[in-house]
Amino acid sequence: MAIAHFSSLKEHLSEQIIGQTALVENLLIALLANGHLIVEGPPGLAKTRAINSLADGLEADFHRVQFTPDLLPADLTGTDIYRPEDSTFVFQPGPLFRNLVLADEINRAPAKVQSALLEAMAEGQITVGRKTYPLPDLFLVMATQNPIEQEGTYPLPEAQLDRFLMHLEIDYPDAESELAILKLNRGEALKEAKKVIEVISQADIFAARDEVMKIHMAPSIEKYIVDLIMATRSPEKYDDKLKLWLAYGASPRATIALDRCARARAWLHNRNFVSPEDVQAVFHNVLRHRILLTYQAEAEGMTTNQLLDHLLSLVAVA
User: How far apart are CA 217 and CA 219, in angstroms?
Assistant: First the structure.
């Protein structure tokens, strides 16, 4: 039932977001794992188009918010509006009350705005004044960061980054994909008819999430996940170099995220069990924003991705 719908959606997204296979798959993984993701990459790589196209294939509404230094928390959450005719205040919901929200260039807004968004992501609700308002059951935030321009930005603290299920890094497409992008753009300019896809209902999304959580995970895979996380906290047990490179390990939230993302990937690949390959495929995206490198690691030219590669090579499947 649901897997066929999601396979069609994945195919549709791949036709709309050319050359970004990883972004398409991980966007669906985040949806199935009921988490949020942060996407980092140069401008013009279809980050906005990706979540907009996802919204077209779901029974969901979408809103894009451009984060700027003058943005206020009320611009996200909404505010109480005074009605002079009856001397009352009425709550006007903000863009966070949509199902899919794009927080474009999240690091350009000050800390208060970032906190308002992250509270909504963590609690599924927002508070205005003395009242708390629940957000929709289907609620996914995709935040973007531009790695090129860092002047005038407000980097997210590590504790806030931990709220995101995954941190994706995307790069430019290859020449073949670039040609396909030209053809797609030309067709859209000529207003050629788009392929009609079946919209996935919210009930089907929630049913798919239940199926994901019921996928079989062998005790050995569970132990493998825990061992990977523990290696970030006690690196000296695995390698002296790893100890010198790792300043701070991953939290239990990373363990939960690794479990859910591995399950979602297995389900998307039409399997009823989780394999070590599923864990390894989502490992970098789940851990990239949850560990800190030491100054020595940075001085040696070590990147977070290289450290995670090294960590994967050290921890064996039970």
Answer: 7
